Amino acid sequence: MKRAPTRDILWLFLATRLLLLLVTYFGYILLTQGKYSASPVAFNTLLTNWDQWDAKMYVRIAQTGYHPPYDLAFFPLFSLLISIPGHLLGNWSYFPLGMLISNLAFLGSLFIIYQLVIDAGGEQVARRTILYLCLFPTAFFFFTAYNEALFLLLSTGTFLALRRQKWWLAGVLGLLSALTRNTGVLLAIPYLYELWLARESVLTSKRKCAGSLIPIALIPSGTALYGIYNWMLTGNFLTFASVQSHWSRQLSWPWQPFIQTIFELFWHQPFGSFNQVQILIDAGMTITFIILAWIGYKKLRLTYTIWITLLLLSFILSPSLGQRDAFISSRRFVLEIFPAFITLAMISIKRPRLHQALLWIFPALLATLSLLFIMGKWMV
């Protein structure tokens, strides 16, 4: 088993963190301070500008606990990890701790993904996969206090444990994933498929069979534990699901968000409107990752295609039909679909011009969208 290049991954991680800090420093100051102003901007002001949108929710839950019912849409593990040291350090520490946890989780994810991709496509593909993930236009969600990085760490860790046939470790990591995001419970399906592939070795003894079958129950147990907590607070085991309508999400047929998107883009929204650009971002990313899933079907291990399909369906079947942008937050959700980045890396190796284009386009969009985020613009 080839070891990940620690030094190279650390440099990539630190370089992209530096890029985001530079965007924060130059962008925020130049856009908010008066012309020829000599007034300084405090460092903590620059830092707290990353405390936007869902980050505020996770930090508030960590600090004061859940305010049912609507807070229960936010799964607990990320806020819990913030709250434990936060209660010891004081109120000032909650948001910085959230950022620290998110960044450390993302760094760990890079090492795990590299190891997974070495098995799937070799060293060059592995290097490009983590490069694209770091530079992706919405990768700033891994920098602030969102739970995307933690979920990526735990879900990729589950896949690596499955590949190594460490069933108990996969079960525990799957349980933690299910406590981090509602889609974590879906890891039980790739687990079952990997178990099927390993059936010959698993069925050699009763001990091996039990040791591989029992841990799968841990994954839905994470969702069940959170359901019990929901029931204790509200009397409803599924409050975390029922409150999704408050956040404008509802179950629908898979074609409904696409039809709404077409009507919004070509009939309802005037050219160059704010809504039109937002719809283009989310719909464009959704369609791009559907295409990557299709291309990757013959290139990747079927377990990865199953995972891509499950994650795509999770937000296609629960769109925001009550808003103009039916695919709202898809720009963020696609970050969790790590196998699509493997496919993109494989494609770019055969198409050098694509790689060169991505090296220009991704950082430019990352800087632009990051700046919009810290300015409090609609970027969720």
From TrEMBL:
<keyword id="KW-0808">Transferase</keyword>
<feature type="transmembrane region" description="Helical">
    <location>
        <begin position="213"/>
        <end position="232"/>
    </location>
</feature>
<keyword id="KW-0256">Endoplasmic reticulum</keyword>
<comment type="pathway">
    <text>Glycolipid biosynthesis; glycosylphosphatidylinositol-anchor biosynthesis.</text>
</comment>
<feature type="transmembrane region" description="Helical">
    <location>
        <begin position="303"/>
        <end position="321"/>
    </location>
</feature>
<dbReference type="GO" id="GO:0031501">
    <property type="term" value="C:mannosyltransferase complex"/>
</dbReference>
<feature type="transmembrane region" description="Helical">
    <location>
        <begin position="333"/>
        <end position="351"/>
    </location>
</feature>
<keyword id="KW-0472">Membrane</keyword>
<dbReference type="Pfam" id="PF04188">
    <property type="entry name" value="Mannosyl_trans2"/>
</dbReference>
<feature type="transmembrane region" description="Helical">
    <location>
        <begin position="9"/>
        <end position="31"/>
    </location>
</feature>
<dbReference type="GO" id="GO:0000009">
    <property type="term" value="F:alpha-1,6-mannosyltransferase activity"/>
</dbReference>
<dbReference type="GO" id="GO:0004376">
    <property type="term" value="F:GPI mannosyltransferase activity"/>
</dbReference>
<protein>
    <recommendedName>
        <fullName>Glycosyltransferase RgtA/B/C/D-like domain-containing protein</fullName>
    </recommendedName>
</protein>
<feature type="transmembrane region" description="Helical">
    <location>
        <begin position="130"/>
        <end position="155"/>
    </location>
</feature>
<dbReference type="InterPro" id="IPR007315">
    <property type="entry name" value="PIG-V/Gpi18"/>
</dbReference>
<feature type="transmembrane region" description="Helical">
    <location>
        <begin position="97"/>
        <end position="118"/>
    </location>
</feature>
<keyword id="KW-1133">Transmembrane helix</keyword>
<keyword id="KW-0812">Transmembrane</keyword>
<keyword id="KW-0337">GPI-anchor biosynthesis</keyword>
<keyword id="KW-0328">Glycosyltransferase</keyword>
<dbReference type="GO" id="GO:0016020">
    <property type="term" value="C:membrane"/>
</dbReference>
<feature type="transmembrane region" description="Helical">
    <location>
        <begin position="167"/>
        <end position="193"/>
    </location>
</feature>
<feature type="transmembrane region" description="Helical">
    <location>
        <begin position="279"/>
        <end position="297"/>
    </location>
</feature>
<feature type="transmembrane region" description="Helical">
    <location>
        <begin position="357"/>
        <end position="375"/>
    </location>
</feature>
<dbReference type="GO" id="GO:0006506">
    <property type="term" value="P:GPI anchor biosynthetic process"/>
</dbReference>
